[in-house]
């Protein structure tokens, strides 16, 4: 990682906007990490779940797991469970299953084990879509489908097609699509594309993701066709995620530039950040005037780690203050402590100075903040920085606090 995503979570807390809530199982406060910053990251992941931002939540909990394994390894199982939850809600069933299996393997005594198993058993599809195999044994069918992974394509494909088109549960059909996507055969991609054209929205979403994994030119053409003809924002977001997996920045940039649905456009902008698409994001920034879109872009630049681009936006007097504030905070995400300290001297409003301090907090740079404290010229300025140092809590911050208490 270029920069600890822990700091990205703090950034999201400072700048995240409220979104529509969705049904999310209650987070267990007793299982949240004891460390103050990690605890914040845990709850930030749940905020993303409430907003149905499944990819953001997944990244938060992946980062939390890595940090916990270094600091509180006994609590890391919670992070794995919530990764599985985010994957499940994002309709990435095969990956959710893998996360649950890893939870059992790495944390066999986890209190989250039963909840993880229940998560896999959940099937929110309409009753008509939940028909089991004639044998009544869904698990056996899934094992049988997985057994086709190593079979010759000419034997496997007819059987997989039979499953996808037959009287099987959605869970088994999704697994069949996944197995088909792993086969090195043109007919396998044809089967996935047929599912992407089908009427079942859940199987259609899974097929869209599988097309992204394939990266095949025909698959990309099919995804473009789906995107252009779809009137469903969730389906368009699925296509953008598929393009992200296929590393098609050009297609994602086109969506970010021309999409009229704000939620889909935001998804495309965020995807460019995750793809390290700094050049594309800066092109986009130069062509948009709406403050909300500008802020989304600078936040994505932070995820992409473009320190120079963000510093240039802050220095541009023609950019609105709210966007410059977001750029300063995003510099913290990008690890731009040096740039933040330099920019503090030219921050000519209290809001901009506070944003510099927030950026340093996100970056975890107590030394840089302590240096600003020593240079502060007014009592009010020192008070503002000292409050932020108190939140920081590292050695550099504590040295300043100790000095003031002598």
Structural notes for this entry:
The chain is an all-alpha fold and 406 residues long. Among the domains are: 1-122, Tetratricopeptide repeat domain (Serine Threonine Protein Phosphatase 5, Tetratricopeptide repeat), CATH 1.25.40.10; 306-406, Alpha Horseshoe (Leucine-rich Repeat Variant). The protein has helices at residues 5-15, 36-50, 54-71, 76-89, 93-106, 113-121, 138-146, 153-165, 170-181, 186-197, 201-214, 217-229, 233-245, 249-258, 262-274, 278-287, 291-304, 307-315, 321-333, 337-344, 350-363, 366-375, 379-392, 395-405. Helix 14 (249-258) runs antiparallel to helix 15 (262-274) and helix 16 runs antiparallel to helix 17. It is flat. Residues 1-31 and 123-136 have low confidence and may be disordered. Pfam families: HEAT_2. One of its GO terms (molecular function) is hydrolase activity, hydrolyzing O-glycosyl compounds. One of its GO terms (cellular component) is periplasmic space. This is HEAT repeat domain-containing protein. Residues 1-23 form the signal peptide.
CATH-assigned homologous superfamily of the domain at 1-122: Tetratricopeptide repeat domain
Average pLDDT, rounded to a whole number, is: 81
Ranges where pLDDT stays below 50 over 5 or more residues in a row are 1-31, 123-136
Q: Assign the CATH architecture of the domain at 1-122.
A: Alpha Horseshoe
Distance between the termini: 40 Å
**How many beta-strand runs?**
0
**Top-tier CATH class of the domain at 1-122:** Mainly Alpha
Whole-angstrom Rg: 24 Å
Q: What composes the largest sheet?
A: none
Classify the helix fraction into a percent range.
Answer: over 70%
Continuous helix count: 24
Sheet-strand content, in percent, reads under 5%
Which overall shape is indicated by the principal axes computed on the Cα atoms? Answer: flat
Given helix and strand content, the structural type is mainly alpha
- For this structure, the CATH topology of the domain at 1-122 is Serine Threonine Protein Phosphatase 5, Tetratricopeptide repeat
**How are helices and strands ordered from N to C?**
HHHHHHHHHHHHHHHHHHHHHHHH
């Amino acid at each position: 990682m270029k920069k600890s995503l822990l700091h990205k979570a703090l950034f999201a807390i400072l700048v995240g906007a409220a979104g529509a809530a969705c049904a999310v199982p209650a987070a267990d406060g007793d299982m949240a990490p004891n460390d103050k910053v990690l605890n914040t990251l845990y709850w930030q992941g749940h905020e993303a779940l409430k907003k149905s931002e499944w990819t953001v939540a997944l990244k938060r909990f992946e980062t939390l797991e890595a940090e916990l394994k270094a600091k509180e390894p006994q609590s890391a199982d919670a992070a794995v469970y919530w990764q599985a939850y985010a994957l499940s809600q994002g309709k990435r069933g095969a990956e959710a299953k893998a996360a649950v299996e890893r939870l059992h393997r790495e944390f066999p005594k986890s209190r989250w084990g039963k909840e993880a198993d229940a998560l896999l058993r959940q099937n929110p599809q309409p009753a008509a879509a939940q028909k089991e195999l004639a044998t009544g044994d869904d698990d056996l069918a899934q094992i049988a489908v997985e057994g086709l992974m190593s079979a010759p394509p000419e034997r496997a494909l007819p059987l997989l097609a039979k499953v996808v088109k037959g009287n099987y549960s959605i869970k088994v059909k999704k697994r069949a699509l996944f197995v088909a996507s792993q086969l090195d055969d043109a007919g396998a991609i044809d089967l996935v594309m047929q599912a992407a054209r089908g009427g079942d929205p859940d199987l259609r979403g899974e097929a869209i993701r599988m097309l992204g994994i394939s990266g095949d030119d025909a698959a990309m053409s099919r995804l473009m066709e789906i995107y252009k003809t779809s009137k469903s924002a969730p389906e368009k977001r699925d296509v953008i995620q598929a393009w992200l997996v296929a590393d098609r920045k050009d297609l994602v940039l086109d969506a970010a530039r021309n999409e009229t649905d704000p939620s889909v456009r935001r998804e495309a902008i965020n995807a460019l950040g995750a793809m390290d698409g700094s050049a594309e994001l800066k092109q986009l920034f130069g062509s948009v005037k709406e403050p909300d879109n500008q802020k989304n872009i600078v936040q994505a630049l932070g995820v992409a780690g473009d320190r120079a681009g963000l510093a240039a936006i802050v220095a541009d007097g023609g950019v609105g203050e709210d966007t410059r504030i977001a750029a300063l905070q995003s510099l913290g995400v990008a690890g731009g402590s040096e740039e933040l300290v330099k920019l503090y001297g030219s921050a000519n409003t209290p809001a901009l100075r506070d944003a510099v301090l927030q950026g340093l907090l996100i970056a975890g740079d107590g030394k840089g903040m302590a240096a600003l404290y020593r240079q502060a010229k007014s009592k009010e300025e020192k008070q503002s920085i000292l409050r932020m140092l108190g939140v920081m809590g590292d050695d550099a911050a504590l040295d300043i606090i100790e000095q003031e208490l002598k």
